[in-house]
Each structure stands twice: as structure tokens, then as C-alpha cells.
Amino acid sequence: MPMRSVPVSEGIHWVGAVDWNLRDFHGYETPRGTTYNAYLVQGTDKTALVDTVKLPFVPELLSRVSTLVAPADIDLIVVNHVEPDHNGGLRAAMDAMPNARVVASSSGARGVAEYHDGLEVDVVGADDVIDLGGRTLRFMPAPMVHWPDSMFTWVQESKTLLPNDAFGQHMASSQRFAEEVGLDLALEELDIYYANILMPLGSQVAKAVERVAAAGWEPSVIAPSHGVIWRGESLAAALDAYARLTAGETREKIVVVFSTMWGATRLLADAVADGVAAEGVEVGVYDLAESTLAHVTHQLLDARALLVGSPTLHHGMLYRVAGYLQYISGLKPKDKIGGSFGSFGWSSGATQQIVERLEQIGFELPFEPYAQKFKPTAEELEAAREWGAQFARAVRDM
Ligand code: FEO
């Protein structure tokens, strides 16, 4: 019994795979799993498969395709993106689709060759049109959304945009559309995905969205390569969310992250947060031993300050704190201020190390770190509250 395919819009079906148990996507925790979406586009003359799936899921892809057409009858495979979650299964899919021409962007064609032992595929770009018979495919290079090779495919008559990673979310579900899983959940996962994958690429994402509009493409459906599909009111909400995200909008909010050895830095974190809240500024406190990096990074997305706490161990910060700072360094959070705090026994190296790392990442540090010896006294906790409060006042002025 083949697995089902799902109609998306006129002439287009979802034929992807659901990875229910994925819990880590190259370091980004995915408690809800993910999907690898592929779409079958059928014209009167030809059939195209837009994107394939991660290698272990090719049997699932082929099963779903077979509900609509024999895989051997597929004429075209479009590779929108060569990252292995989409392109890993290309060679195996091609084995089942021996008559298919394969196309990718120019950078994508080079990537396919590198991933697949010199496999040669055709290059398509913004000037190319492929007519499937009443169903026309157009292409738009979208470099750095998410890799240099990334490309959007537009199915003109179906008014459907297939933008690969853009507008994606890591979320497994039996439903395929945002309104079916609930718009709030879909938008939350859209934000989490953007924070953990696309945050450093906001200007490229914004330009790609602008190019879609400039090309006169007015999608009624945006069907990404991960998670649920956007249409109707959910599509408008997703576009609004991307406008907000790519603009880097922030609000009066501070994120406090810490790790602790014997509880002193936790006491400081709570006092710092209390000082922030007392000034009427939103604050969230995250123990890195308990919180996922993806969740804390999502919280950082619209915050104006990041305050990082660590005790000193062997003259430096705890490894969890170093790991978190390394995680966000590639995500290049912009226009935020930072600070460091922590307890120490006989040397206060951690707070200075955090200062240096935050500066490297691009944070401005308007205030000195707050370092405190052994267990904080009542007076020291009051000083930590005031240390937090000064950041709250600063973010109100940003
Ligand atoms: Fe879903 Fe950049 O791959």
C-alpha cells in the first residue's frame, strides 16, 4: 500500500517525507522533528519533481510519487538546494527516474557534482522557462537562502512558490498546511527556524522576497521544503512574519543565560533578572544545563540585550557557556548589547573571557562585568539587581 500524496494546489502534490524522530538538525535541537518536502508538478505533457529528500527517506518519496505517476515517467527533477537534507537522496531518486533531466542553479550544479561523484546536471536561471504543458516552471536564484546555490521555483499557473528552506519550519506533523496544525504553532516554528538557520542571512532573505514581488509573482501558496505549507490567511501571516524577522525588529526584552557550578551564579542570574523586571522590561532566564540552544536562541531573536553568566572554572567560563557563545557567533545577532556576570573562587577569568567573546561576536558592552566571590551576600545580590536594572534602562533607550 503506497503512502499518500497530498494535493497542494492545481497540478501540484506534496510527495515528501516526515522525519518524526529527528531531534538534532546539525546542532539545532528539533523536538518536533521535521519534514523533507518534495513536490510533484504535473502538466499535460510532462511531470516534474521539485526537490528530493534526505537519503534514508527516498523509499517514502517514491511510495508517495507512485500514487500519482510511475517514477520512471518523471521527466524533470529540480534541485532547489544541494544541502543533503534535500539533495542527499538525488542519486537514489534518479535510479528510479532514469528518464528525468535534472536542473539546478549554476552553483547548485557544481554542488551536485561535488556531492555525487561528478554527476552533471543542467543549469537553469532567471531567464529559463520550462513548460510542462499548461504548467510553467520559472526559477529564481536565491543565494544564501540558505546556501549559495539556493533557488526558488515558481509554478506560474498554480501561483505556487516552492522556495526550499525559506518559510520553512522544523516540525513533523500528519497535516500539511499551517492552518491545520494551528497558525500560532506554525508561526512559532517559523520564528525558531529563522532564528537558528537564517538569522545571519536576513538581508539576503529580504532581497529574495523583494525579487519575488519584482518578478510579478504573487503566490497564493508558499510551499517550503520543511514543515507546513502556507496559503490564505496563514500565507499573509507568514509574509508579515518574514517582513518583521528580516527587518531585525527587537523590543524591550533581555535574555539572561547562565550555567552554574554550586548555585552562586544561579542566584546572581535570578537577581539580575529581578532587577530587569523591576524596570518594567521583559526578561527570560535560561540555565544552559536545562534549556536547548535552539530555544534560547529563539528568545534572543527579538531581544535587545544578552546577559551571560558563568562561574570561573580553571580560569575560564564553563563549557556550556562557551558552547552557547560559539553557537550564536555564526548566527551574528545584530544591534544588541551584552554583559557578563558570574561568581568565582580565587580568580575571575570567566567574566572577562565572556566579554571578549561577546565583543568578537559583535555585541556592544556598555557596562563593566559583574563578578562576585563565592556565595553572594544580600548586599551583593542587591548590587546584581542594580547591575541588571542598568541594562533594562539602556534597552528602553535603544
Ligand atoms: Fe533544508 Fe539548507 O537545507
Spell out the blueprint of helices and strands.
Blueprint: E1 6-9, E2 12-14, E3 17-19, E4 24-25, E5 28-29, E6 34-36, E7 39-42, E8 47-50, H1 58-65, E9 76-79, H2 84-87, H3 90-96, E10 101-104, H4 106-115, E11 122-123, E12 129-131, E13 136-141, E14 151-155, E15 160-162, H5 178-181, H6 183-198, H7 202-214, E16 221-222, E17 230-231, H8 232-246, E18 253-258, H9 264-278, E19 282-287, H10 293-300, E20 305-309, H11 319-329, E21 337-344, H12 349-361, E22 370-373, H13 378-396
Bound molecules: MU-OXO-diiron.
Describe what you observe in this structure:
With 398 residues, this protein is α/β, with parallel strands linked by helices. It folds into two domains: 242 residues, Metallo-beta-lactamase, Chain A (4-Layer Sandwich), CATH 3.60.15; 144 residues, Flavodoxin domain (Rossmann fold). Helices cover 36% and strands 21% of the residues. It contains 13 helices and 22 strands. The strands form five sheets. A seven-stranded mixed β-sheet has the order 1-2-7-8-9-10-11. It has a six-stranded mixed β-sheet with strand order 12-13-14-15-16-17. Strand 18, helix 9 and strand 19 form a beta-alpha-beta unit. Helix 6 crosses helix 10, helix 7 crosses helix 8 and helix 9 crosses helix 13. It starts with 5 loop residues before the first strand and ends with a helix.
